[in-house]
Design goal:
By secondary structure, this protein is α/β, with parallel strands linked by helices. The chain has one domain: 2,3-Dihydroxybiphenyl 1,2-Dioxygenase, domain 1, CATH 3.10.180.10. The protein has helices at about 10-25, 75-85, and strands at about 5-10, 30-35, 35-40, 50, 70, 90-100, 105-110, 115-120. The strands form two sheets. It has a four-stranded mixed beta sheet, covered by helices on one side. A four-stranded mixed beta sheet has the order 5-8-7-6, with helices on one face. Strand 6 and strand 7 form a beta hairpin. The radius of gyration is 14 Å and the shape is globular.
Length: about 120
Amino acid sequence: MIGYVTLGTNDIQASAKFYDELLAEIGAKRFMEADTFIAWATAPDQPSVAISKPFDGNVASVGNGVMVALLAENSQQVDALHAKALELGATNEGAAGPRGEGFYAGYFRDLDGNKLNFFCMT
């Protein structure tokens, strides 16, 4: 089970604004915060997404093949969240739509290039 996912960022303020607006769409809000770290969740005991400046002080970089999948309620919410991510400056990595039988997803990269998707089972 996933407890939380941390994504590296080089601009904590820009990344925080992106995730504040995007994750508010699914009812998530900040529940932990420090100078170099912010985490969002729908409830403190639920899985969370966090951004962080790298602990080692080096530049944050994107892991090739690494992706975070965020559960949506239905395909309409996937469509809306994917569109919201793009509106906030994300880049499209795959339009929202069916991906095989029973799976619906929309893929994007955040402002730091981290790959995410919103998905639902149909």
